[in-house]
């Protein structure tokens, strides 16, 4: 199969060749939690850019400085464990609701979402 080099625009490949790359792949329907449904719609995300909460302020500073934050998280599989968390974003699911942070947890070596009212700075 002739595949264009990485970074090459798809305009270099005609539609038939592009479609042939996906021949034989199984296509499944996404779960309702990902697509939303009348009974369970996808929640809108409200980004947090400023806050009076000292934990949120520390996380916002860490995002700007691209550095990890040492925290104790009262949740997950190891409640109270010291974690080094590099946040990517802060948001609320509804205006005035709790603030969530998404980023990389070095303890788990993966992406995690923390609810900030369960976080204590180390």
TrEMBL record:
Residue ranges of domain WYL in the record: 57-120
Pfam families: WYL
Protein name per its UniProtKB record: WYL domain-containing protein
Organism from which the protein derives: Haloferula rosea
Lineage of source species: Bacteria, Pseudomonadati, Verrucomicrobiota, Verrucomicrobiia, Verrucomicrobiales
């Amino acid at each position: 199969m002739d595949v264009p080099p990485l970074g090459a625009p798809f305009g270099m490949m005609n539609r038939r060749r592009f479609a042939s790359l996906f021949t034989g792949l199984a296509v499944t329907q996404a779960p309702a939690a990902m697509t939303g449904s009348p009974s369970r719609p996808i929640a809108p995300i409200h980004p947090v850019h400023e806050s009076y909460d000292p934990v949120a302020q520390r996380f916002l500073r860490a995002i700007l400085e691209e550095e990890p934050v040492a925290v104790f998280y009262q949740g997950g599989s190891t409640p109270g464990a010291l974690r080094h968390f590099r946040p990517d974003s802060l948001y609320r699911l509804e205006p005035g609701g709790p603030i969530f942070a998404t980023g990389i947890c070095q303890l788990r070596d993966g992406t995690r979402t923390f609810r900030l009212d369960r976080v204590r700075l180390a």
